[in-house]
Design a protein that fits this description.
This protein is of the alpha/beta class. The protein has six helices and ten strands, in the order H-H-E-H-E-H-E-H-E-H-E-E-E-E-E-E. An eight-stranded mixed sheet has the order 3-2-1-4-5-6-8-7, sandwiched between helices. A two-stranded antiparallel sheet has the order 9-10.
């Protein structure tokens, strides 16, 4: 079975443009479908809890917007999430802003944090301690350079809290191309990565956030949109074992119009590889 695609941040952006500009898929539809799949993973992580408490940590970009969609889909199932945004409200724009406004009208508890990092962490700590699951929608694959405040302090606080964490696309603080931490980096039990695997996931430096990930497919986002992959790092006698059984919901159909993606190198034998393709559902 052919391996899933691997794509750099620039290749993923090119593929998004292909979906939006060539296929005509609205960008907000991509965000909606991504958030829906992440919500499914979140539900599995809190399954069995009578009254689960979910905390969504959002940045100002699309990862934060995905988190807003996650919160809405969880609410449909009666799971109420608290939203904490590391940006002033007027800086949440475009598709993310639309989804935040929907949560406003639904009556969600939304707190936009600003000010010194110490004050933000002071407000954050009790929410972290009360949460059964933290959704990491702080930073995405576009992050470059050292992690700045208040993100650095917030990431450190999340790690110190020791709660279960589900990361959107990539653990905040990790460089998806190189696998190297850019500073404090979220330690996550599960990451739902969008469009394609990131080259850095198999790099030694990525072990701080997702040691020896196992790969399994999730459902396709929508007709002609990018694949969703998740990996779970599960301790088992000092090693990491594969997550639940894989189901290939869709297969990969080549297209000359699509930007190129690379196949994993032969030495990446610690990763269990699957195949997907893009086609109308």
């Amino acid at each position: 079975m052919p391996p899933p695609p691997i794509a750099t941040r620039d290749e993923v952006r090119a593929f998004d443009r292909y979906c939006i500009e060539t296929l005509g898929v609205p960008s907000i539809a991509l965000m909606e479908n991504a958030g829906r799949q992440i919500a499914e993973a979140a539900r599995r992580m809190i399954e069995g809890l009578a009254h689960p408490r979910v905390l969504v940590l959002a940045g100002r970009g699309n990862n934060g917007g995905d988190g807003f969609v996650v919160a809405r889909h969880l609410a449909i199932d009666g799971i109420r999430a608290e939203i904490m945004v590391l940006a002033p409200r007027d800086q949440i724009q475009a598709d993310a802003g639309i989804n935040l406004a929907i949560l406003d009208r639904m009556g969600f508890a939304i707190q936009c944090l600003a000010g010194p990092a110490e004050e933000i962490v002071r407000q954050l700590r009790p929410r972290l301690q009360a949460a059964d699951l933290v959704i990491d929608g702080l930073l995405g694959t576009g992050t470059k350079g050292s992690i700045r405040e208040p993100y650095a302090s917030v990431i450190t606080a999340v790690n110190a809290a020791g709660r279960a964490v589900l990361a959107i696309d990539i653990p905040s603080g990790l460089d998806g191309d190189t696998g190297q931490p850019l500073g404090p980096t979220i330690r996550t039990g599960r990451t739902i990565t969008l469009a394609a695997l990131k080259p850095g996931f198999s790099a030694p430096g990525a072990a701080a956030s997702a040691p020896a990930p196992s790969i399994r497919p999730a459902r396709s986002l929508a007709a002609f949109t990018s694949a969703v992959t998740s990996f779970t790092a599960t301790p088992s006698g000092g090693a990491y074992r594969n997550s639940s059984s894989a189901r290939p919901w869709f297969s990969r159909t080549p297209s000359k119009a699509m930007p190129p993606v690379r196949s994993p190198s032969a030495e990446r034998k610690s990763i269990r590889l699957m195949t997907w393709s893009l086609r109308p559902m």
